């Protein structure tokens, strides 16, 4: 899409650092420079004010990635595109079948109502819950990682959705301030909401998480 739009050498393309490196790689393959903007902490997608702050005369496009099944707030981003004459592209996740999406939403609603001590996801319009991502409060990564280990020890599968931001990776290392991205990398944890989970499975997830109170101090 970038090449078809004429984006190439000398151009800059605004992309998120929170998530998959493939978007930055695609920009580089087109010959352009990926420029990283911060995310909205509720949606985990590009924050419009951060995007606008990164713009220069060389900016040609913005690539918005919808994250975890939660669509980005596209209105402000399209507004930036219109004001500055920029191409605004969307990277969508694979579609979840309707029946499975309904079951995921049902399980997500159950977790929203039962979990204590962790910050549950923002519902948002059209959230398909491809991943159910919570925040583990505390002093950063040690708390989230200790929490994840303890939950797994109780028989609940969970995963860290983004292990490192793209702007820290060797090929794309940048000295930029992305506080919401950094915070999300340190605090987020994906809990299971697959359609195959039984009521007992869901109760086990809640029991394992609530027993920990949402916060574990890092080991000394």
Automatic annotation (TrEMBL):
SUPFAM superfamilies reported in the protein's UniProt record: PLP-dependent transferases
Keyword Transferase attached: yes
GO molecular function terms listed in the Swiss-Prot or TrEMBL record: transaminase activity
Matches recorded under InterPro entries: DegT/StrS_aminotransferase, PyrdxlP-dep_Trfase, PyrdxlP-dep_Trfase_major, PyrdxlP-dep_Trfase_small
UniProt entry keywords in alphabetical sequence: Aminotransferase, Transferase
Pfam family, any one: DegT_DnrJ_EryC1
Gene3D superfamilies linked to this entry: Aspartate Aminotransferase, domain 1, Type I PLP-dependent aspartate aminotransferase-like (Major domain)
Name of the molecule in the record: DegT/DnrJ/EryC1/StrS family aminotransferase
Source organism: Streptomyces olivaceus
């Amino acid at each position: 899409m970038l090449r078809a739009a004429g984006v190439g050498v000398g151009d800059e393309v605004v992309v998120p650092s929170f998530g998959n490196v493939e978007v930055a790689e695609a920009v580089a393959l087109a010959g352009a420079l990926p420029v990283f903007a911060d995310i909205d902490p509720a949606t985990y997608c590009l924050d419009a004010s951060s995007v606008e702050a990164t713009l220069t005369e060389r900016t040609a496009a913005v690539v918005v990635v919808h994250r975890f099944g939660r669509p980005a707030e596209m209105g402000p981003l399209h507004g930036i595109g219109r004001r500055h004459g920029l191409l605004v592209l969307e990277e969508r996740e694979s579609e979840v079948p309707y029946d499975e999406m309904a079951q995921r939403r049902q399980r997500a609603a159950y977790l929203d109502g039962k979990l204590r001590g962790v910050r549950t996801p923002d519902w948002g319009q059209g959230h398909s819950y491809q991943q159910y991502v919570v925040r583990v409060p505390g002093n950063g990564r040690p708390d989230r990682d200790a929490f994840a280990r303890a939950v797994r020890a109780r028989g609940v599968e969970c995963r860290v959705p983004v292990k490192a931001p793209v702007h820290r990776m060797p090929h794309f290392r940048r000295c930029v301030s992305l506080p919401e991205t950094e915070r999300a990398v340190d605090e987020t944890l994906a809990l299971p909401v697959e359609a195959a989970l039984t009521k007992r499975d869901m109760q086990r997830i809640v029991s394992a998480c609530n027993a920990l109170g949402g916060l574990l101090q890092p080991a000394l």
